[in-house]
């Protein structure tokens, strides 16, 4: 699984999104939770240009098709951030603090339950910060779903990120660059 995720994330293999989304769909279905829409943690513009695609967005769109739910872009990065892989927990928290806002003030998230997708969760800093922006924008509940947790296998019952929970399917360590 580690090699598959690394190829998808760093190896210019966007076509793996469908396969990986199918795996995420199995994990999500086992939770018996209901959401109104699926969204993703947006990649910064610089990294998107380097990779040629936003892997979390591709995963989320494929997952939305798999689960027959709408996909909606909800967040935008207000500023570029450093790569999280080489930062300590405290540095990660500071790095992403306040970096997300709603993609548009007219986005209606009032009372919505949102499934937020990202590829890897390590400390949860990015997912938590994205969740804060969505809740501030009116979302009732935000769930997190990732392919992997960087520091070990982690799977929880389905609770909102406001309560500090997320789901992931496997473990691996990101390579140091």
Give structural attributes.
177 residues, alpha/beta, 6 helices, two-stranded antiparallel ribbon, single chain, 19% strand, 35% helix, Rossmann fold, 6 strands, disordered C terminus
Written overview of the protein:
By secondary structure, the protein is an alpha/beta fold. It has one domain: Rossmann fold (3-Layer(aba) Sandwich), CATH 3.40.50.2020. The protein is 35% helix and 19% strand. The chain has 6 helices and 6 strands. The chain has helices spanning 2-10, 17-29, 45-51, 55-67, 89-96, 125-136; strands spanning 37-40, 75-77, 100-102, 113-121, 141-149, 167-171. The strands form 2 sheets. It has a 4-stranded parallel sheet. Strands 2-3 form a two-stranded antiparallel ribbon. Helix 2 packs across helix 4. The chain is globular. The two termini are 20 Å apart. Mean pLDDT is 79; it is low at 152-177.
CATH class: Alpha Beta
Instruction: Report the total helices.
Output: 6
**Beta-strand segment tally:** 6
Strand order of the largest sheet: 1-4-5-6
Broad shape: globular
What portion of residues belong to β-strands? Answer: 15-25%
| pLDDT < 50 stretches | 152-177
- CATH topology (level 3) name: Rossmann fold
């Amino acid at each position: 699984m580690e090699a598959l995720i690394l190829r998808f994330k760093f190896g210019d293999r966007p076509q793996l999104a469908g396969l990986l989304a199918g795996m995420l769909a199995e994990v999500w279905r086992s939770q018996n939770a209901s959401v109104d829409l699926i969204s993703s943690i947006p990649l910064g513009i610089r990294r998107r240009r380097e990779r040629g695609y936003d892997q979390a967005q591709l995963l989320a769109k494929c997952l939305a098709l798999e689960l027959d739910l709408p996909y909606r872009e909800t967040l935008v990065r207000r500023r570029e951030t450093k790569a999280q892989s080489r930062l300590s927990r405290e540095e990660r928290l500071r790095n992403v603090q306040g970096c997300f806002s709603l993609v548009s003030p007219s986005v209606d998230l009032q009372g919505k339950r949102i499934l937020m997708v990202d590829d890897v969760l390590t400390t949860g800093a990015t997912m938590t910060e994205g969740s804060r922006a969505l809740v501030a924008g009116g979302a009732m509940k935000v769930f997190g779903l990732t392919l992997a947790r960087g520091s070990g296998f982690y799977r929880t019952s389905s609770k909102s990120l406001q309560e500090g929970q997320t789901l992931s399917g496997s473990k691996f360590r990101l390579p140091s660059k």
